[in-house]
Amino acid sequence: MRPPYIHEFSKFSFLKFARAGSWIHVAVTRNMSTMQLIGYKNGVAATPVTFTKVPVATNYNVAIGMETDGYGKLNGILDEVRIYNRVLSQTDINELSQKMPDFSSKLLAKIPKGTTQIIVTATWQGTGILNATIESPSETYTEDMLPVYQKTRYSTSDGISGTLNIKRLLVSVPALSSDENWYITLDVDNIEEYTITVEIQK
Known about the structure:
Blueprint (H helix, E strand, L loop, with lengths): L6 H4 L15 E6 L4 E6 L2 E2 L3 E2 L39 H8 L9 E5 L5 E9 L3 E7 L4 E2 L6 E9 L2 E14 L7 E10 L4 E8 L1
Antiparallel strand pairs: 1-2, 2-3, 2-4, 5-11, 6-10, 6-12, 7-8, 7-11, 9-10
């Protein structure tokens, strides 16, 4: 994050060796009393950097995730951005770094008229846990209410870390009289990536 044309701050970098495909918690504190910037990657502090220029009020836009002059653009996804009016402590940042992005947001599935079965399939790798709740306009279905077609683990050559988990949930309903919006809510633990597919039958 930096205002345009403030090149002193653009030299501050602490994200070397970031692994592609993984979430990283990033925090930067600016302490005007000590005139220091401290960057944190997953709660671990980098060496403080001293700055000499005091930011002044301007009408420039602040760019988060990219630079307006075209250099150093972010190649990734920002899940959440917070700006505080105080300097966070090491304890504050440690606690925040333990919180993974919220993957539990509802997924929208547009179910067409005439549908009698909705099949939701979730796949993920590793030992994490994924549970799904399926919500129609008139009913909420939890996993203990539904047939689970498959809940299988296929072990690959590298053992547990390569385990493929497949979970299929079936909802049977009378033929829908109109198109409906259904929602799928996921509760995940220790999973970085997953795939969800929705099939319908008439």
